[in-house]
Amino acid sequence: MEPVEEVRYLILAAQREGNRRLARGLRPLGVTPAQAEVLRLLADRQPLTMSGLGDLLVCESGSNPSRLVDRLVAAGLVQRVPSSQDRRQVELTLTGEGGVIARDVAVIEAELYREIEAAGASHDLSGVLGFLRSLVEGQSAGDAVARRAGRPMA
């Protein structure tokens, strides 16, 4: 296997393993990793419009995550409210229960981040970050990460 091919598969394997660990932790809460991402984004940045949310999502492709939001609304975790700025716009906010679940998600994510940090303790994480950023630079998912981190996009 060529080194660049191994890099590709190691990135894929790390993403899948991280998602499995996250899904396992989220299972008792009854939310998926993609739903958890929406809840955490809203906890940090509410209210968000649907397009604003779509600009920040990494787990869900596309800029219109309406089906994902529909499931969260049906579960009573997110609500749609008319925008105070523009009645044609709808803003998304957490319900009380959604806020509780979002806090529980943050605890589960923090544990995953501790595991990642421990695995990277003997490695140059800034070098890994630079490599990964350059790999996704200018791509929609990479742009979403840059927006969330408050970094300028390429």
Automatic annotation (TrEMBL):
PROSITE patterns: HTH_MARR_2. GO terms for biological process: response to stress. InterPro entries: HTH_MarR-typ, MarR/SlyA-like, WH-like_DNA-bd_sf, WH_DNA-bd_sf. Pfam families: MarR_2. GO terms for molecular function: DNA-binding transcription factor activity. It comes from the Bacteria. Residues 4-137 form the HTH marR-type domain. This is Transcriptional regulator, MarR family protein. It comes from Streptomyces bingchenggensis (strain BCW-1). The lineage of its organism: Bacteria, Bacillati, Actinomycetota, Actinomycetes, Kitasatosporales.
